[in-house]
């Protein structure tokens, strides 16, 4: 994670497969939690997290030269605008803290487990 924290941007360039289409983008959440904006292919849940967090870029392409061009352009945009990168770093970290952290999900998880225990009695 030390390497991730020092990264300019995180990449999540996954293909549109049935498994990825419905999966939570844990890699993206890890990048955002580390304060690293993310460039992602347009998987629905990945795009939703990037849109909601205000931290990252969603490509239009899935593969090939167009994807390479879009990713290169996005990386260079972060290189040329450190203020944008800093703003998105804070935005992504804040989003994870407020919406995707154990502090938010933990009580719901414990309540669900307690419900299972109570139902089993």
Question: What distinguishing features does this structure have?
Answer:
121 residues; 7 helices; 3 strands
Tally of DSSP β-strands? 3
The averaged pLDDT comes out at 90
Q: Order of strands across the biggest sheet?
A: 1-2-3
Helix content bin: 55-70%
Terminal residue distance: 42 Å
Rg (CA only): 17 Å
Poorly predicted tracts of residues? none
- Secondary structure class reads mainly alpha
Question: What is the makeup of the main sheet?
Answer: 3 strands, parallel
Shape: globular
Strand content range: 5-15%
Order of helices and strands: HEHHEHEHHH
Number of helices: 7
Multimer state: single chain
Question: How would you portray this structure in words?
Answer:
The protein is mainly alpha-helical and 121 residues long. The protein has helices at 2-5, 18-22, 26-33, 44-53, 64-80, 82-100, 102-120; strands at residues 10-12, 38-40, 56-58. The chain has a three-stranded parallel β-sheet with strand order 1-2-3, sandwiched between helices. Helix 6 runs parallel beside helix 7. It starts with a helix and ends with a helix. The model has no long low-confidence stretch (mean pLDDT 90).
């Amino acid at each position: 994670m030390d390497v991730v924290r020092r990264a300019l941007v995180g990449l999540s360039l996954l293909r549109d497969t049935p498994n990825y289409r419905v999966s939570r983008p844990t890699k993206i959440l890890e990048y955002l939690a580390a304060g690293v904006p993310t460039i992602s292919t347009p998987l629905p849940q990945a795009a939703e997290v990037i849109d909601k967090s205000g931290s990252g870029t969603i490509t239009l392409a899935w593969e090939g030269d167009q994807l390479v061009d879009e990713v290169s352009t996005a990386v260079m945009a972060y290189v040329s605008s450190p203020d944008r990168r800093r703003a998105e770093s804070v935005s992504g970290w804040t989003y994870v803290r407020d919406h995707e952290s154990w502090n938010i999900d933990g009580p719901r998880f414990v309540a669900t487990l307690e419900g299972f225990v109570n139902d089993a009695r």
